[in-house]
């Protein structure tokens, strides 16, 4: 299953991506490359809408993990929304859930990103 | 009959091959995506740790579906490697944890049973998933 990555929102501080497909050992490098291009020196929040992710393996997790480590080092965070039960289970197995900001739906995540945008505009 | 998978095949092509061969009767269940995660972990381990030392490398997969029990039987020729001896996931804070080494722990936790044997130079791993049991409410430790 291919991976489609759609950039939903980008600002100096935040980046939001919608993922569709599988995050596996073939597609994970594609996400890694996209993040390397999109994350700027001032990015502190990376948000993933995972509603369309059918399954994830350790290769995909490594990319999320790497992003999480980078954001934590910048006192920022990684947010995820709309994970399926199966994808969530894999995150739970590797004990990443406590370090993620989890939103139940895209509306909550949008509100959160809008708040960041308002703060940036001040 | 087992499917033969080349180490250089893409994950998408492997999963399509599996769907074509086994069909909805075997794969239409709540745990099929866990099954795909396990297959990707196995395939990427073969690519990273076995195929790099050989000119040509293939592995075999047979899926047996019976009364809600799905068994994934993986086989490949190569040095002894027992994937059931997975290191547990680190309890360290995120900042001090290594990024890799999570694949075997994921397979172990997603499966209901794992059996490994090594005979005549062939590694055989059987991973069992009970598709009748819902795992959604499981607590992971």
In the CATH hierarchy, the architecture of chain B is: 2-Layer Sandwich
Strand content of chain A: 25-35%
Count of all domains of chain A: 1
Give the full name of the CATH homologous superfamily of chain A. STAS domain
Percent helix of chain B:
25-40%
The largest sheet of chain B, given as strand count, sense and whether it forms a barrel, is: 5 strands, antiparallel
Largest sheet of chain A: 5 strands, mixed
CATH level 4 superfamily of chain B? Histidine kinase-like ATPase, C-terminal domain
Rg estimate of chain B, integer Å: 15 Å
List the secondary-structure elements of chain B in sequence, H or E: EHHEEHEE
Q: Give the SSE string of chain A.
A: EEHEHEHEH
Largest interface: A-B, 33 and 31 residues
Q: Spans of chain A of 5+ residues with little confidence (pLDDT < 50)?
A: none
Task: Kindly describe this structure.
The complex is a heterodimer of chains A (122) and B (141). Helix content of chain A is 43%, strand content 31%. By secondary structure, chain A is α/β, with parallel strands linked by helices. With 141 residues, chain B is α+β, with helices and mostly antiparallel strands. Chain B has one domain (3-130): Histidine kinase-like ATPase, C-terminal domain (Heat Shock Protein 90), CATH 3.30.565. Chain B is 31% helix and 27% strand. Chain B has helices spanning 11-27, 32-50, 103-110, and strands at 3-6, 58-66, 69-77, 113-119, 122-130. A five-stranded antiparallel β-sheet of chain B has the order 1-2-3-5-4. In chain B, a hairpin with a 2-residue loop joins strand 2 and strand 3. In chain B, helix 2 runs antiparallel to helix 3. The longest helix of chain B is centred in the first third of the chain and has 19 residues, at 32-50. Chain B starts with a strand and ends in an 11-residue tail after the last strand. The chains are: A alpha/beta (122), B alpha+beta (141). Chain A binds chain B through residues 1-2, 22, 24-27, 54-59, 61-62, 65-66, 68-69, 72-73, 84-87, 89-90, 92-96, 99, and chain B through 10-12, 15, 31, 33-34, 36-37, 40-41, 43-44, 47, 89-91, 94-95, 99-100, 102-103, 105-106, 109-110, 135-136, 138, 140. Chain B: It comes from Marinobacter halophilus.
